[in-house]
Every structure is written in C-alpha cells, then in structure tokens.
Amino acid sequence: MEEEKKKNGAMPTLAYYDIRGVAQAIRYQLIHQGVEFIDKKFPTNEDKSSTSSSDEANLPYFIDVNGSKITDVIEI
Amino acid sequence: MGASDKEKQTCEKLATDMAALKKRIVDPCYNDDANKEKLIEAIFKEFETIKGLLDSKNFLLGKQPCFVDFSLYETLVFATLLVGKDMVAKTFPELISYQTRVEDLPNMKKHLTNNVPPKSNVPFNMRYCKINVYPNK
User: Fold this and answer.
1) Are the beta carbons of B111 and A31 closer than 8 angstroms?
2) Which stretch of A44-48, B44-48, B85-89, B119-123 has the lowest confidence by average pLDDT?
C-alpha cells in the first residue's frame, strides 16, 4: 500500500542528508501530524565518492503531493 | 504553522530564534578550541531563556505544539546530551518535563519507540565533534 502511494506520487517527499540536521524538526512535525512522507536521504559528503547531483543543491526540500517544491526550512 | 495570523507571525519569529539557538549550542562543539565546561556554562544561560519562553505553558505557543516546539525539542536533545540528563533534571526540571511532553505526543511516541536508522538517530557527528559527548562510550 505504502509502496503504491510512493509510486503514484501520492506521498510528499522530504529530502535532506542522512543526518538529523535542520531537517529533523521538520520530520518530527510531519510525524506528529500523522503525515506519511518519503524521507529521502542523500549520503553526506564524507560518505560518498561521487560528486553531488543538482538534486542536492537546495537541501532540505519538500515536494507536496501536487508536485510543488519548497526549499526553505521555515517555509516547509 | 500557527492557527491565526498573529500565531503564524510569532511562530515564524520563534522558528528563526530556535534555529539561531541550535547554532549557538551545537556549532561550538565542532570548533577546535571547544571547551566542554565553558559550553555547559553557556548552555545554562540559554536554558534560563528557554525557561522564560516556556513560562508555565505546555508548549511554546500554549496548549498545542507547533513546528517551533520540534525545533526546540531537537536542540534540547543535543544540549541535554552535552550537559547530562541528571544535571538538567536537577537544575531545570521543567525542561525535562517539556521534552517528555513532546516525546509523549501519540505519533512521536510511536516513532521514537520504533527503530530508526542508526546514523540519523545520532545527534552529534563524533567524527568532527571536538568534545567527548558520550563519555561512557
């Protein structure tokens, strides 16, 4: 069921590095509100050998179910 | 974030304040000249401010939690780890009660008792942190 929702883009996405950082409070807020979301985690620079993708340029970002993307922590 | 326009404004200001607070508490731990005693002294001053902000409220804006509470909670987790939970409980019991209130929110409780990826669950990056946050490890 969850996989299907992810596949259909029916779940919002929160993307950040694989650390707590500035995204942790947002994760907690979503969890508190009972929002099912994709917790997309990028490896930190210390954990990867390849160069950064453009997808990582504005972390954290949040994509809602309509596809709107916001990148500012407070805005999220 | 916040129910009324006034609450939204307060919430936005607090969100900025909380981000700055976390920076003041966490960033110095990664400095080459980090000194645990001095950091704890500075944190205690911050705790006084937080205590004043919370006053007798359950959460920062009153009875219901909002985003800034999770931001403050996250900072308190770091600060409590640094200072030691027993010491915080002794000097600022209201801050421990506040953390417990946030942890006891139904969905938070469920989340915190479930397994989370180990790396995301470690507050300090000990590869770079200049002070021993986990003295017993």
Assistant:
1) yes
2) B119-123
Domains present along chain B, CATH in parentheses: 5-121 (1.20.1050.10)
Q: How far is B14 from chain A (nearest CA, A)?
A: 10
- Give yes or no for a cis peptide into B65 (omega within 30° of 0): no
Question: What does the pLDDT look like over B109-121, one tens digit per residue?
Answer: 999 888 665 555 6
Residue of A nearest to B16 (CA): A74
Q: The complex's ipTM?
A: 0.84
- Domain A2-70 CATH assignment equals 1.20.1050.130: yes
What global pTM score does this model have? 0.84
List chain A domain ranges: 2-70
Task: Name A37's Cβ contacts closer than 8 Å, sequence gap at least 6.
Answer: A11, A12, A13, A14, A30
